[in-house]
Design brief:
This protein has helices at about 25-45, 70-75, 80-100, 130-145; strands at about 1-5, 55-60, 105-110, 150, 155-160, 165-170. It is α/β, with parallel strands linked by helices and about 180 residues long. The strands form two sheets. A four-stranded parallel sheet has the order 1-2-3-4. A two-stranded antiparallel ribbon has the order 5-6.
Length: about 180
């Protein structure tokens, strides 16, 4: 089974007065991660008799952290990046522990996004060198031998899942007029 977790933008704050009624903050983010965790486990439970799942791969596809690449985010994020990174690592660890109690084998593949990068201007070389690479390493340390964590340095990481090769990427480098018109 493959689950995609992406673009949590923790701990960004969105004021509904400034965003057409849309509200978002760290608490909403954490509740959404819990909701996703519960839905993945429920999905497995509902199909267990006809489709026994031996392995869950969780593709963490970037921008789990809001980062500080925009001046606005530097001011409006609920927490500084270091504290946000630690809290997100523990949230993903809790998710992994819950998955490990429901699936025989669990692995996380943590890809870097563009929001937690270290520079305001995007770089083509070493795009992996950002706060989410650190997040993945932190998660791997927490996970120990309870579940597997892979933190590639590839822009597109090719990963085997159920006999298929799947390209995992955040996708910020893919433009609508580039590869086969895929936005």
């Amino acid at each position: 089974m493959l689950a995609l977790v992406s673009d949590a933008h923790y701990p960004e704050v969105v004021d509904p007065r400034a965003a057409f009624g849309v509200k978002y903050d760290g608490d909403i983010c954490m509740r959404r991660l819990e909701y996703l965790r519960n839905k993945v486990i429920r999905y497995r439970d509902l199909r267990a008799t006809s489709y026994p799942t031996q392995k869950l791969t969780v593709a963490v596809n970037g921008d789990m952290l809001s980062g500080n690449i925009h001046e606005e985010l530097e001011v409006t994020n609920e927490l500084p990046i270091g504290e946000a990174l630690v809290k997100m690592a523990y949230a993903l660890f809790d998710m992994g522990i819950a998955f490990a109690s429901s699936f025989p084998e669990v692995e996380f593949v943590v890809m870097p996004g563009n929001h937690p990068r270290l520079t305001k201007k995007p770089r083509m070389k070493d795009k992996w060198n950002n706060w989410e690479w650190v997040l993945g390493q932190f998660l791997a340390g927490l996970a120990g031998d309870r579940f597997k964590v892979t933190v590639p340095k590839d822009l597109v990481y090719v990963h085997p899942i159920f006999g298929q090769k799947i390209g995992i990427t955040h996708g910020d480098g893919v433009k609508s007029a580039s590869f086969a018109g895929i936005p």
